[in-house]
Structures
1.
Amino acid sequence: MANTYCTATNFGKGFFTHEDRNDFYLSGHAGDVWVVGNNAAGVSWINRVTGTAKTKADAQAIVDAKIDEDIVAWNALSAEEKARQSEPVKYTLP
Amino acid sequence: MATYKGIQGYSVQKLSSDPTATDAVGQLWYNSTSGKFKIGDAGAGAWASAPSMNTARKQVGNAGADNTNALCFGGQDASGHHGSTEKYDGTSWTEVGNLQEDRRLIDGIGTTNTAALAAGGYDDPGYQQINEQWNGTSWTEVANLQTAKGAGGSAGTSTAGLAFGGVPGSPTASCETWNNTSWTAVNSMNTGRIGLGSAGVTNTAALGFGGNPNTAATEKWDGTCWTTVNGLNSARQYLSGAGTSTAALAFGGTPGTSALTEKYDGTSWTEVADLATARFELGGAGTTNTSALAFGGSTGPTAGLSATEAWSDPVYSVKTVTVS
């Protein structure tokens, strides 16, 4: 499995370092969901930030729920605002 | 038993503590305290988390020098338009003097957090000509733009600035230059656009890239005219930028929510390491493509972000060598 999944709150400086970014894959998503490269450095990072492990399905469900909220909000935007940003679309976590 | 010195003709240095990561590049040593062999490495550029802003927001104005020096002003949060200003010193964001006029989509200009310009922007009922100058403590209204605009590109300093592209109406290609007294209309860009990224530390050399209608097109300003140069690898809009007209960084943007980062070397764009948090309508600061800051922005219509990321290229580190 290439990636693992967790939720964690970004507390700012030190949450992830430059070295972390070169040691494992990391991407943040809505709902404080983080996709983390499944290697020793990535697992160590989850422990360091006291992340809560999630299955891919659970992580995807959190992100999907946030995007559903965004779609409702996007539909309520003015035409000027809609022209500036595309309608949110659900996507599959890596 | 053969020794390393016997084979190579010299010894591995022995140090009681590691040198700084910056000083250690290319070196190998034995740390006598930890009993480990170490090497100094200069790895690929990357984004790291940095302290979050006090107020989450998008569509912000921005200025600054590098990943330790930035200014964020205006924008939009859940309560509407914002006039607050936050200053980043490498350790934390601090709230400082508010803009005179709350607005968002400001063309922010400035190479330091102690001197900046907030040109134009949107406040009901439309785009504004308002221009405010930051002296490190407070904002003062100075001479208006020639035409109301916002969501454009910008370059230069608080006393020698450039504002290009943006709105209102259909995307504009117009360009104005600031001499610390007044704005003057100069030659327009070749392609009108809004929500473009920009780079440049003077009003005589700048780069504009991406924008809406969704484009990868990049143009370079030489103080007299705009010339189309090699485009971004990925077309996008409402992205941010840092650097100069010959060494720039482009990051974030939309359609969708982009984490992409591209680096310009004066000839072409190369994709480098992504932001950790994809976003658009974000702020950016930095006068080089080796040290920059990304802050705020949006992942959708519901909320702005407070998250900040710091770009360093290269990333210096000390690594332990595995021996058997």
2.
Amino acid sequence: MDHPAGTKVQLNRDHCLTLLREMIRIRRFEEKCAELYTVEKIRGFLHLYIGQEAVAVGVMQALGADDAVVATYREHGHALARGIPATRIMAEMFGKQEGCSGGRGGSMHLFDKANRFYGGNAIVAGGLPLAAGLALADQMQAKPGVSTCFFGEGAAAEGEFHETLNLAALWRLPVLFVCENNLYAMGTALGLSESETDLAAKAASYRIASEAVDGMNVVEVEAAARRAVDSIRRGDGPRFLECRTYRFRAHSMFDPQLYRDKSEIEIWMKRDPIVRFRDWALKAGEMHDADVTRIEADVAAEVAQAVEFAENGTWEPVDTLLHHVGAESRL
Amino acid sequence: MTALTYRDAVREAIREAMMADPRVFLMGEDVGRYGGCYAVSKGLLEEFGPDRIRDTPLSESAFTGIGMGAAMGGMRPIVEIMTCNFSLLALDQIMNNAATIRHMSGGQFNVPVVIRMATGGGRQLAAQHSHSLEGWYAHIPGLRILAPATVEDARGMLGQALQDPDPVLIFENALLYNDSADVPADQRCDIDRAAIRREGADISLITYGGSLGKSLEAAHLLDAEGIGAEVLDLRVLRPLDEGAILSSVAKTRRALIVDEGWRSGGISAEIIARIVDGGFWSLDAPPARVCSEEVPIPYPAHLEEAALPSVEKIIAAARTVMGR
């Protein structure tokens, strides 16, 4: 059977460059965030996406402007890959009013209406009902959108995960559940918190078509996301995509990582999604060393510009403290 | 003028909203085929179909959050939660999302959802179906909390709540569903102001919801003792109509709060604090309150009655405030 348009990954030179560039943007942005955290430019909790870049980048390739995205507190990568400018994300990290949430949210609460990016949700599994609701709105209004919800494997322990999967399947909602299984819910390994560790099987028990993919392989993620989104758009109901991945850095900046061995991290770092894809693309002749050098230079400039933008940003005056609690028209 | 029960008034309000706006739909446990736990939505499934009168599984957190997501996606959902005790299962969505998303997004997103639920005791339903948690919810910035105490407000508030760009919670005291009254056909209703339900010169009985009737009855009996009690129906618990509270107390110089919630940390404490802050020098006596006793609501009728505010307790407290 022929695949409908848009369901296959077109691995031409341009697309390879896009995938690599998007992953490197996230990696370098996050490295800069870690650095800025140590000098207290970024405060609060900071959860880095380093190691998981292939998931956000791969999935976003399958989404269009009409689709909605709901993410977690580890969402800088999703925000970047979705198209929110790095400048506005970095300004949000700084708490400046030029940030994508006006400075009110910070690292864990990135929002952007223009890109239908609905946060930045720091309650584990708290975003699943919202994504299903956005999908219900699209369904009831006969809009073509697919609502995509990212969450970690820790969410599978929450009631909201099960309630939402059940309802999404029952009502055949156009929602894509993307579970980023990085093996640890903060410091608790999956096997210590779940009686059934096969997450795709859990979703399948709600009669949701499910697939588990190598989340360190951006092409595999993109291909699976395209299949899922295409099926959802055809009205086949929700889909569940488990991406098996790993975060290379600590849970947050306060985490001494007592719960995992360095050797485990080293094994996973050998599967670095950026290095792996870059080396493949170079070997396949889809790009050259000069392309990689240029991408790195472009990204370095973009990150530097983002930091400068954030540094030059302004603090919201305290006299507007009570804004954004309710509609200004109701005050 | 049409005579309606409180139950019919809510149903008519839902019907009217659904006919006027295709974005409005009702979702909740047993709202469709069962007709609603309190028969509020009886007949609506037949009229509007299962897409707009949507039965949900017993998943309060998911269906409340889905209602909120649908609201952000352009719909105008009415989420019904059977009782406010069950709403605690959806508290994450209400507190962490509905009340915060406008703020966290710097004003980019709003959540125009309406959440209705039954509240209050008096039906021997014991300690998991009888509580009055509206005062708790009134603690949370970002929510508007309504407590319709009259048939007219039951008829009028819902439509206004659906016009609000932000989340509105409506607490319907379950003992009121059988109340009946004439309601004007083209009434106007706001969801901002308290209302004086009875004028009086000597003491302000400040109340809302299921305690309004008891307060009015107490006021009537106090009249025979020569005490003119004014009865102020708060109607909106967040934001409180502080101006109405202070102006009534400025007139009567005495205040008694009647609240079916518990005393400790309750909204009655907040109202008294505001009276003390803003009206201390006009007071002739310390403000007082009649609240539910500090106990989960018991099952036996005589114990439940003893736990809730009553006409007798209101009269006794009013006499004390009056120095009699």
